[in-house]
Amino acid sequence: MSLHVNANEVVAVLLADGWYEAKAGTFTVGAFAFAGATDGSSADIAGQPGFRLTTQEGSVIMGPLSSVLAVRCEAGMDQERTPLQELAYRLDGQIVTVDGAESVRFTYAGQQFEVWLGATKYGLRWLFAAAGHRESAIDYGYGEKDPVDQVARAAMSELKAGMHPGPTQAPEGSAPTS
Description:
Elements: E1 10-15, E2 18-21, E3 28-35, E4 42-54, E5 60-64, E6 70-73, H1 83-91, E7 94-98, E8 101-108, E9 111-120, E10 123-130, E11 138-143, H2 148-160
Antiparallel strand pairs: 1-2, 1-6, 3-4, 4-5, 7-8, 8-9, 9-10, 10-11
Helix pairs in contact: 1-2
């Protein structure tokens, strides 16, 4: 039996010196590496997974995932989620900040995508793009008041149909076509 933890529902982590409360949606996991301060180099810690969170006071805590002794999650059914938290939950993604605005980043078929509320000529709308390629975003026509489950279903429908927003990537080992 596997116990799956949705990172977006983690509200506190237990480290060796005690519990640390996390701001909603800030607990993330990924490769743990140290980056060089001046030369841009990085030192991967043997592919070891790591974690990052922002405390309620605004401090950022990062470390190897093995240092987390336990996590405390919010009760999803008992607490109201923000639209971004709900979208992150439905897409099994994480809330990240890109260019000063929060978005949900998630992975599908090994590629990362983002969904966010962006300003359009029609007002705030949910936009969808490959991570790092916001200029080619798809506007689904859903505004900030529309249910996020519609946005999540639209994004996943596009991906499952093979219609990925943003630049297409040639399969590994294949030659580019012209």
